[in-house]
Amino acid sequence: MLDGLVISIDAMGGDEAPDMVIKGLEYFLTHEGKGRRARFLLHGDQAKLTPLLAKAPRTRERSEVVHTEKTISMDDKPSQALRRGKDSSMWNAVAAVKAKRAEIALSAGNTGALMAMSKLQLRMKQGVQRPALAALWPKENGVSVVLDVGANIDVDAAQLTEFAVMGEAYHKALYKSESPSIGLLNVGTEDQKGNAVIRAAHERLSESQLGLNYAGYVEGNDISTGTVDVIVTDGFTGNIALKTAEGMAKLIGTFFNEALQGNFWSKMLTFLNAYALFKLKRRIDPRRVNGAVFLGLNGIVIKSHGGTDRVGFANAVNIAILLAETDFMHAIDVRLDALHDEDDNIGFIP
Amino acid sequence: MLDGLVISIDAMGGDEAPDMVIKGLEYFLTHEGKGRRARFLLHGDQAKLTPLLAKAPRTRERSEVVHTEKTISMDDKPSQALRRGKDSSMWNAVAAVKAKRAEIALSAGNTGALMAMSKLQLRMKQGVQRPALAALWPKENGVSVVLDVGANIDVDAAQLTEFAVMGEAYHKALYKSESPSIGLLNVGTEDQKGNAVIRAAHERLSESQLGLNYAGYVEGNDISTGTVDVIVTDGFTGNIALKTAEGMAKLIGTFFNEALQGNFWSKMLTFLNAYALFKLKRRIDPRRVNGAVFLGLNGIVIKSHGGTDRVGFANAVNIAILLAETDFMHAIDVRLDALHDEDDNIGFIP
């Protein structure tokens, strides 16, 4: 039987699973995770996992395989996944959290399916309508939390205020921050900007007596500048902002490589640049911020990028363990309850 | 009296106006605009413009000052600007286009005020509800057009389809492209993704027989990758995507500079890197894509970034002249009419 902190892992989720998953765990246990007492429930095909575990001794020692042959594909619609995916590796990974056999579930599989299964099995916290997906974003001094990045396409003002308190709790748990500042993403900083939903959320957050460090509206460029620690937005805008920034970072990388190509001197430069580029790449490496969390559920579920490699997956494992070690779930409950009580007191209608 | 192509310029609009405006014109006439027959109507304070023009001989030779002391501030709300801004430099710049004394108006002033004044004076093309603001975006091979980037916070499916045909006409006019590809910005590429408005626009564009090169849904990362030439989105999402990408580019610049700092060897590297960095900076220089156009009006109005310098302003002047030389306005009319006729034929209700 496993002891210590248990992470429940969908070993079959992700573009290169299960290979990438096992390599990611081994990478984690060899680097950041060295000496950590965490253990893993690996949900997936025993026949495929056994040979991989044979080459990953640290992971094998800390893991227990829960066999299932059923998997969810990246193309399955959430409704299909719910109908046909019971007892799949993803389903079982979440089920272990529900059954309290694990603290946290982690999957690099299909986001929509993972959300649907998590919602169905773990259920939403009282008063919360749908989970929000919170991503990490590199900024000048540290990392900020952006939510929602894709789970809620249409939101109301009440959801945006819930995102604010859940994002605050998440930033506190991961970065031990005292009072992370919160911004509401908009197309300008003047009061009249944006649509009715955003203005209602802005008014509600401005009036709150919950001690939120609310900084008002922020704009797109503020996300990377790092004006605030938590950026609140709807899932449509957040998803597009996140992917647009990834695209821009990639474009600059391409342009830089092209600028360094050409003649002998350019090639020498590439060589001499290696160290500076290494440092730069480390800071903007998307793998270092891999791992988004579903917030608002009665249990923690982490979503790794489906196309990540072992280093990125190891980072998601690290986030899972950092969260499991805190009283994050309780902190969210306390803040959400306080928010909803305040809603009732002031008669807030979103 | 002026002859040749006439550009009507709000000489008092922009953070550093009128200085930056006159320097931008002089820069344009010294570089890209050398030998161009364009002439300029400069709307603004004669007392401030005369000494600046004395130091800008090429601009002085090709310009006529239309005196007004009234200006619109960057903080004025559109409604205030409309009430109090008649006969301001911005108002007069647009009025000259209405009176056919100029082909195009250009301002680096307050975006909301410029849109409101343009709409009131020039009026919308038949069937179009509000202007769309189209921006240029650097991509791997060339430049793409993104619209709307801030004029329309809430849109319906009919507006999104109008953006598609107007963006197509704009790309054709600026880049002489035969059949620019068009993508609809969404949070995924599967049919069921997005909200009802986007899905309705997708269906409408997919069914159109107008010969649009419609590529379907694109995601945030596709904007910089350059999957398509024209990216269609609502003004809220477009504005945030644009500013988020600017912020990410700036962050990478900061990280790169930090990576190059430190010891003697790093400093040598900075020096050796100068050429590669110069080439890189040229390609991602936001000034090279400065100049957004309001589409859907009976007349062309260009908006320069308020904080740009002379190089950026010169680029906006260049776009204005490129557009004025084409049959862009007629091309938009033809395509919008065809779209609206098709709407009627198929009984499209947005």
From TrEMBL, chains A, B:
Enzyme class at the top of the EC tree: transferase
GO terms (molecular function) for this protein are: phosphate:acyl-[acyl carrier protein] acyltransferase activity
Q: What is its main location?
A: cytoplasm
Keyword annotations for this protein, in alphabetical order, are: Acyltransferase, Cytoplasm, Lipid biosynthesis, Lipid metabolism, Phospholipid biosynthesis, Phospholipid metabolism, Transferase
An example Gene Ontology CC term for this record = cytoplasm
Taxonomic superkingdom: Bacteria
Q: Which pathway does the record list? A: Lipid metabolism; phospholipid metabolism
Question: What GO terms in the biological process aspect are recorded for it?
Answer: fatty acid biosynthetic process; phospholipid biosynthetic process
Q: Name one Pfam family in it.
A: FA_synthesis
Identify the SUPFAM superfamilies for this entry: Isocitrate/Isopropylmalate dehydrogenase-like
Q: What is its EC number?
A: 2.3.1.274
> Can you say where in the cell this protein is located?
Cytoplasm
Q: Which reaction does it catalyse?
A: a fatty acyl-[ACP] + phosphate = an acyl phosphate + holo-[ACP]
NCBIfam families linked: plsX (TIGR00182)
The record's note on quaternary structure and interaction partners says: Homodimer. Probably interacts with PlsY.
Q: What does this protein do?
A: Catalyzes the reversible formation of acyl-phosphate (acyl-PO(4)) from acyl-[acyl-carrier-protein] (acyl-ACP). This enzyme utilizes acyl-ACP as fatty acyl donor, but not acyl-CoA.
Task: List the HAMAP family.
Answer: PlsX
Q: Which family does it belong to?
A: Belongs to the PlsX family.
Q: What is this protein called?
A: Phosphate acyltransferase
Species in which this protein is naturally found: Algimonas arctica
